Input
Amino acid sequence: MSKFNGKNITVEIYGESHAEKIGVKATGFPRFTFSEDKLNNFLARRKANKGVFSTSRKELDAPIFTGVNNGEILGDFSADIYNQNTRSNDYDNLIGKPRPSHADYVAYVKNGVTNFAGGGRFSGRLTAPLCVVGGIAKQYLESLGIYVSAYVSSVGEINAKSYKNGVLSYADVETLRNDGEFPSLDKKEEILNKIATVKAQGNSVGGTVECVVYGLKAGVGDNLFDGLEGKISRLIYSIPAVKGVEFGLGFDIAKTTGSTANDELYYDNNGEVNFYSNNAGGINGGISNGNLVTMRVAFRPTPSISKTQRTIDVINKQNVQIEVNGRHDACIVPRAVPCVESAVCIAILDEII
Output
């Protein structure tokens, strides 16, 4: 199990990819009644589907709650999700043979694990319970006028619309992202063709997800170890396959000068503080400044590919070659979009309640 200990809430995720069940326990959440239909629609965005990018493993992902009555959180709560479509024998040829760039080898080093079926506790399957808690947090934030929306901004070398080219309204982002089977704002067919080509080669491809937080007031977060960027990043890095997080202009800010990078302030016609730019991504000194919070998350290509790869046999102590069977995403990025939203919502909720 793995646990996030926040200032006000805790989130503990348990289970393994091919275990009987996975789930989550949460404490410190505010008394709140959420829409179970809306939550199920949110969870459906993470589930495998008929898309070319998606694994063929289909799970119902229907959370069974304790501590919740007709959507009302009564206090501390938990949710179990039963695994119903596992095929552990797909990994029989990999006993003791860690898949390159998976957590298999480090799991062996740390715990002596030699059966790497489904990735165990390191699997992306564990993002399902993350999205249960994140989906509830998202609804609570929306009741306060805070909206979190993420979308695919790139796959491979194909770059779709980005907040760096001008931030769209929440309504526009939601409309464009939901227009078609792929959750980017444009270039959907081009990206899907790219994924199909890579998949046909027995390969996979990575990409980036961008996320925008609308309506977060100034003053959320704190300095140093308690900074908002650090908390959001920590939650985002709980998503398997994340290899980088940047806020605002991100790494591109290193190419600029202070006069270009600085976000100058002004009073608008209503006497409200505003900014001429948002290179900082809505956060200064670890504290939200009232501008939109913007970030981009980099995801590596799915390491499970059917191409022949070199690895080791830790049981027989020899070098070997393997081919990974089983059911895997050709591109994890589109299914990671609600996972990013979940991580961001949990981080913000922990700061404001």
Q: What stands out?
A: The chain has a mean pLDDT of 94. The chain has one domain: 2-352.
